[in-house]
Amino acid sequence: MLPLSGIKVIDLGSVLMAPYASQWLGDLGADVVKVETRDGDSTRHTGPSTEPGMAAMFLGTNRNKRSIVLDLRNPEGLETLLRLVEGADIFLHNIRPQKVKKLGVDPETVAARSPRVVYAGLHGFGEGGPYSGRPAYDDIIQGMCGNSDLMMRQTGRPGYFPTVSADKTSGLVAAIAILAALSARERSGRGGVVEVPMFETMAAFNLVEHLYGGHFEPPLGRPGYPRVLAGTRTPFPTLDGFISVMPYTDRHWTDLFKEVGTPSMLEDLRFEGIAARTRNIGLLYEQLAEIIATRSTSDWVDILGRLDIPAAPVIGLDELVHDEHLEQTDFFHELSDEGMGHMRFPGVPVRFDGVRPGIGMPPRLGEHTVEVLAAAGLTSAEIEQLLSTGAAFQHTFDQVDRASARCEEFGGAHV
User: Would you give the distance in Å from CA 280 to the centre of its chain?
Assistant: First the structure.
């Protein structure tokens, strides 16, 4: 049994931050019900797909969930959602605060229906500041939180990290905060409201090491940790490829200098001790790059392994899915789906008592509407009423078959 078995989650999240948070809850055993509009989460159409509505970006953040479709603009649809919340432990969304009240899913309304529910709002910016309520996507937050400045200080040009770092980091923090609130509820008997703003989350994330001299008043230097900002901090070219090398301790550097026959570097005061090396890290990495370039990657893996200095060849994304360590630890999870065929997913990275949690197929749009509503106590007549008025929608596999045939007719879908 997984740690969150028996915990019920109602998830109004869309795109990436909130779905990533709820996917973690599902991976840990919670029953996550993803509530979508008739159009569905936009990521259902982002990336390659063999079936409309099941594109790669959606697959990456929506496993271990069930999907229902409710029209929350319809009073019957909204009332149905609130009935579902009454039986839930966690309610989460990434709707902007000013729209939450209008939609009828604000913290006060939800708490009135279910005082025990943990209510989590994942926003771009925290309430009470001048940015409150602004729209926010990953690129916007990366530009504001220091990511782009870090790129400029390292490369000379502002940029974004080539991963949706703000969404994923904030999603992880949201999962942690939700679990903390759930733990508090076990002691108090009452739920609570969790606010997770992307901007503040990423500012906190970057300033762990980069506040640096700004910890002090007056500052003992400008923000920015020199070692990771050094333009020479890159994988090092070898005779036949690239290798990541991370000598860090005094022993690492001493052993390396001795191994490569550069005793003068042992006596260089610029490299004596971690404080001096940090001040002169750019120059040190330049000299290390010259040394690394003299031998092959495999030679360096052997040498540095013998010296117990952290090092590894650079692994490309194409190679990662065939990495021997990931294969032998059964990291990748493979599924066979009746409509989509053979599928591969990255596994849940953590284990409980030596066992890695399993993975369920991400849901088709509205695949579980009737199932979820019936389990919540709605009668067949009530469910039929919701379906007939459009307040709810149930997808069937026959619809999937027809949609897939259309997709194949046009050579698959790719956005």
Answer: 34
Rounded-to-integer distance, Cα 210 and Cα 223, Å: 5
Contacts with 399 (C-beta within 8 Å, 6 or more apart), sequence order: none
- pLDDT string in tens for the chain (415-residue length): 999 999 999 999 999 999 999 999 999 999 999 999 999 999 999 999 999 999 999 999 999 999 999 999 999 999 999 999 999 999 999 999 989 999 999 999 999 999 999 999 999 999 999 999 999 999 999 999 999 999 999 999 999 999 999 999 999 999 999 999 999 999 999 999 999 999 999 999 999 999 999 999 999 999 999 999 998 999 999 999 999 999 999 999 999 999 998 878 878 899 889 999 999 999 999 999 999 999 999 999 999 999 999 999 999 999 999 999 999 999 999 999 999 999 999 999 999 999 999 999 999 999 999 999 999 999 999 999 999 999 999 988 665 554 444 444 334 443 3
- Cross-strand pairs, 313: 243
Whose CA is closest to 135, among 198, 78, 61?
198
What are the angstrom distances between the C-alpha of 149 and each of 61, 145, 159, 197?
28, 8, 8, 20
* Backbone angle region of 116, left / alpha / beta, with phi > 0 → left and psi within -120 to 50 → alpha: alpha
Residues 349 and 27: their CA atoms lie apart, in Å, by: 10
What are the respective helix, strand and coil percentages of the chain, to the nearest 5?
Answer: 45, 15, 40
- 245 touches 304 (CB < 8 A): yes
The answer to whether 403 and 37 have CB atoms below 8 angstroms apart is no
Compute the distance between CA of residue 218 and CA of residue 283 in angstroms, rounded to an integer. Answer: 28
Q: Do 15 and 94 touch, CB atoms closer than 8 A? A: yes
Q: Are 43 and 36 in contact (CB under 8 A)?
A: no
